[in-house]
Design goal:
By secondary structure, this protein is mainly alpha-helical. It has helices at 13-26, 31-46, 55-58, 71-91. The longest helix has 21 residues, at 71-91. It is globular. The two termini are 16 Å apart.
């Protein structure tokens, strides 16, 4: 279970908002739930606007679904999520 999660950094508004939303969403989730959430968020971000985010699943992160239409900004939205994914993989080794 994710008992504590935080972030510290500077970046564009999209990356900072995404990191903040992600930390709120993941608090208290099991590892598998967190991985699933990352996968779902990535799928929305890679859709180029074709997949509408499910607010029931992604909560406030659904507000970032419009970013998917701007490929140059997808990396901004994904930055914290990819860092989380790497941290989960490292913790599982």
């Amino acid at each position: 279970m994710i008992t504590a999660i935080s972030w510290d950094g500077d970046g564009c508004a999209i990356s900072m908002a995404s990191a903040s939303i992600m930390t709120d969403l993941l608090q208290g989730l099991e590892r598998d739930e967190a991985v699933s959430l990352v996968d779902t968020f990535r799928e929305v971000m890679r859709s180029r606007g074709k997949i509408r985010a499910d607010e029931e699943v992604l909560g406030d992160a659904a507000a970032l679904s419009g970013v998917s239409r701007y490929p140059a900004r997808v990396k901004c939205a994904m930055l914290a999520w990819v860092a989380l994914e790497e941290a989960l993989l490292a913790a599982n080794r």
